[in-house]
Each structure stands twice: as structure tokens, then as C-alpha cells.
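User: Can you help me understand a structure? I only have the sequence.
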Amino acid sequence: MNDLAEPMERTSTGSSRSLVERAVLVPAGAVLLAAEEIIGVAAALTDAERAGRELLHFEERGARARTHVERLLHDQRGRVADQLDQRIEQARHHLTVLAARSKGISSKIRPEVPTNT
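Assistant: Let's start by predicting it. Here is the structure, written out as C-alpha cells:
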């Protein structure tokens, strides 16, 4: 008996066989689960009252997902705004330092006297 949840066997033929089994069983299981889910939804939609409850459930789930995404976007927008503010402050600081340095340098440079030609 081969349990797929157990670690793969150590032998090369055993591990190859286990890999092949998994390669076949995983997609097959996913398809079967999806089919069962579809059948369940279709069965629910045949009864009007049950269909109304299911549709309400879908709507509520969609609303929760939308709220979650909106919250994530709001948080991300705040982080981006904070980073932008920090970079603006850094740029202002660098400009202030550069302006102070340029004043110090420009005072040491003798201005050229324009010549009339």
C-alpha cells in the first residue's frame, strides 16, 4: 500500500513510481473536487429558496473580498505616501546642504570683471 502523504521511497524505481503516481493523482483529484463543487452549486441553484441563499452567500463573500482589497490598498497607499514624504525631506535636506556649500565656494571665487570690447 502506497500512501502519498508519506515521504517518497528511497529506491530509484520506488521514487520514480511515486512521482508518476503523484503526477497523475494530483490533477485527477483537483478535477474531481472541482466537479463536485460545481455539482453542489448547480444543485443549490435548482431550488429557488436555496438559490437565493447561495447567491446571498456569494454576494457577501465578494463584499468581504472587496473590503479586504480596499483595506490592503489603503494601507499600501499610506506606506507609499510616508516613503514619498521621507524622500522629499531628504531631497530638501540635500538641497540645503548643497546651497550652503555653494555659497561657501562662491565666496572664494573671484568674479570675473567683464571687459568692454
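Now, to help you interpret it: The chain has a mean pLDDT of 81. The helical segments are 12-46, 48-108. Let me know which part you'd like to focus on.
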